[in-house]
Design a protein that fits this description.
Elements: H1 6-23, H2 29-50, H3 59-75, H4 80-102, H5 107-127, E1 137-138, E2 144-145, E3 148-149, H6 153-176, H7 178-188, H8 190-195, H9 200-226, E4 228-229, H10 236-249, H11 254-275, H12 284-303, H13 308-318
Antiparallel strand pairs: 1-4, 2-3
Helix pairs in contact: 1-6, 2-6, 2-9, 2-10, 2-11, 3-4, 3-5, 3-9, 4-9, 6-7, 6-9, 10-11, 10-12, 11-12
Length: about 350
């Protein structure tokens, strides 16, 4: 998109997001809330993958940590807002601790290590009495902030949007700052960035922790909205969903995270409706999901390797008025669009 059109796109996206809870039905609002919470997680993961060059297959683990943190604090009859505030902090702290050894790994080794972390946490949570075991924690009270109780779907939809707005604001400010320039250099080449004075290890750990904090905040909202958390609420497949959202939307872009979360969430809802039709086997929704994930990844890698939003943005820039070369045809040496990750 040309720079003049970006504010208009941002205003349109914000207006649509704010109007959606007022226009959607009671059966559609839960899907919308799940979509927005997924966008919260994917925004952080997109920054992690697009700038730090790290792939995490365990992002749902931090989502789970945030949910359990909010639930445990609230069930202890402490202020519910304290549970929501603590959820991103605890998730980020856990990520900072485990990230020190994990981020020494690279590529598929790091991806499988984060996946192992989620499997270990799921196993531990399912065996502990204080977490409710496999049954989980039920009866999580409604969130109350400054005397206002979030009691219906529309209230939680706007709460999820507020969380997403905060995450987008933080992400944009970071990308536009001096550390953000260091992250862009890191995405291009770790060796070149380090030789230029960028503290590569510290930046990677910071982005890893920040993305975990975003997931933890989304998990806190999830716990209050649904009123329970259990290991089954945070399956391994959920982490793969987040990865697919980033790849489809475009890593390193905020709009890509939003687009990827929207496309995949709506597609999953459609597949779930098909899989639960009469006569379909019980495993049909899961099987369909895995099949579609594989197909989408193949198609995106082949035809849109940069993701949906960067591809569409590049096409839009190329279709603009071309610069003439004298009186003849347009020169083939026109400047090509920047292919580095952007913040929008």
């Amino acid at each position: 998109m040309k720079s003049l059109s970006r504010p208009a796109v941002a205003v349109a996206v914000c207006a649509a997001a704010l109007l959606a809870p007022l226009l959607l039905s009671q059966t559609q609002l839960p899907v919308y809330i799940v979509l927005v919470l997924a966008a919260c997680v994917v925004t952080g993961l997109s920054m992690l993958m697009g700038y730090a060059g790290q792939v995490s297959l365990g992002q749902a683990a931090f989502f789970m940590i945030g949910g359990y943190t909010a639930a445990l604090i609230s069930l202890e009859e402490l202020p519910t807002w304290l549970g929501l505030a603590a959820s991103p902090l605890v998730a980020a702290a856990v990520a900072a601790v485990i990230g020190v050894p994990l981020l020494r790994l690279r590529g598929h080794q790091l991806a499988f290590a984060t996946l192992a972390i989620q499997l270990i946490l799921l196993n531990l949570v399912g065996q502990q009495e204080w977490t409710g075991g496999d049954i989980g924690l039920q009866g999580v009270p409604r969130l109350r902030i400054a005397g206002y109780e979030f009691a219906d779907d529309r209230a939680y939809a706007y709460l999820a949007l507020a969380a997403l707005g905060l995450i987008v604001l933080i992400t944009r400010n970071i990308v536009a700052s001096r550390p953000g320039r260091g992250l862009r250099a890191l995405a291009t080449s770790e060796v070149a960035a380090e030789s230029s004075g960028v503290p590569v290890a510290a930046y990677k750990l910071a982005v890893f922790s920040l993305s975990a904090g975003f997931a933890g905040l989304a998990g806190g909202v999830y716990a209050f909205y649904f009123g329970y958390v259990a290991p089954s609420s945070f399956p391994v497949l959920l982490s793969f969903e987040y990865i697919v959202m980033v790849v489809v939307g475009g890593a390193g872009t905020i709009y890509g995270a939003l687009a990827g979360a929207t496309v995949i969430t709506l597609l999953l809802q459609l597949l779930n409706n098909i899989g639960t039709m009469e006569g379909m086997p019980a495993a049909a929704p899961t099987v369909l999901s895995y099949a579609v994930y594989g197909l989408l990844l193949v198609l995106v890698v082949l035809f849109m390797p940069r993701g949906l939003v960067p591809t569409v943005t590049g096409w839009w820039e190329r279709r603009g008025p071309a610069r003439p070369s004298g009186d003849g045809p347009v020169s083939d040496g026109a400047k090509k669009p920047d292919l580095t990750p952007t913040s929008a």
